[in-house]
Design brief:
mainly beta; 265 residues; 17-stranded antiparallel β-sheet; Beta-galactosidase, Chain A, domain 5; globular; two-stranded antiparallel sheet
Length: 265
């Protein structure tokens, strides 16, 4: 099948894109930066939020953000904290993307805090690295270095695909020992996508302009949802987090994945 070849090709080194149009900084403000070229672009906010990920005039990723749930120290109440909303902690000013040859790199790092958890002490250091390479290649790495002993009720990366580029398209998911197929149905009610759940190695959305591929450095605990309004989040759980699980200072959790947009090479 075509998509199996694409997933295998995705593991090749970035040198395969050496002669493609270089990536450059298209816009830089105090709140966000846009990097890309004439074929595609990615907007990165000062919190690390990703949005307006486009190729060929179509939006393929509506949002990329960490979503977390903490537990209030005094009351035990669940507390929602979302990277895209700036509620993880005080993010630094938007850094200038670094030009590294034909690609651009952005690294954002700050301490996550919440006034209702451990008296507002720093809970973990979030370091978010984004590399944008020629040919529509995007490398994402999220690392949470735990600074306190506490319960992280949940922490996941939500990569919400857009119906504009991915709606009503076939989706193929590769696990360690089997494959599944499904469709991102624009008419589906909000809820889970049952065919996508478990230790996922790679995914492919068969878009009209070509495949959109997502693959993980290591098999990841992944699920998928329908949000309505043409948005389909791929949800990747942060290792070492979960219900009633303590995180320990000195250790860390990492989500690392790669996206290939439908850009011709």
């Amino acid at each position: 099948m075509r998509w199996i070849w694409v997933v295998a090709a995705a593991g090749m080194t970035w040198s395969a894109a050496a002669e493609l149009e270089p990536v450059r900084v298209l816009e830089h403000t105090e709140q966000y930066a846009v990097v890309g070229n004439d074929q595609f672009s990615v907007r990165i906010g000062r919190t690390g939020k990703l949005d307006q990920v486009q190729a060929g005039g179509l939006e393929y990723i509506w949002l990329g953000s960490l979503y977390t749930t903490l537990i209030a120290t005094e009351t035990g109440e669940y507390l929602r904290a979302v990277q895209a909303e700036g509620s993880l902690g005080e993010a630094p000013p938007m850094p200038t993307p670094v030009q590294r040859g034909d690609y651009c790199e952005v690294t954002i790092s700050y301490d996550a805090t919440h006034e209702e958890v451990l008296g507002g002490q720093p809970l973990y250091t979030l370091t978010h690295n984004v590399q944008v390479h020629p040919g529509g290649w995007i490398r994402l790495r999220y690392e949470c270095e735990w600074l306190q002993l506490f319960t992280m009720q949940s922490a996941s990366l939500y990569l919400a695909l857009s119906g504009e580029g991915c709606g009503n398209r076939s989706v193929y998911t590769q696990y360690s020992d089997h494959l599944t197929g499904s469709v991102f149905d624009m008419e589906a009610q909000p809820g889970r996508v049952d065919a996508i759940r478990g230790a996922v190695r790679a995914m492919l959305v068969d878009c009209e302009a070509g495949p959109l591929t997502i693959w993980f450095d290591e098999p990841a605990d992944v699920s998928a949802q329908v949000w309505g309004e043409g948005r389909f989040p791929i949800v990747t759980k942060m290792p070492t987090t979960g219900r009633s699980e303590l995180v320990y200072p000195g250790l860390s959790g990492v989500i690392a994945l790669n996206v290939k947009l439908p850009v011709s090479e």
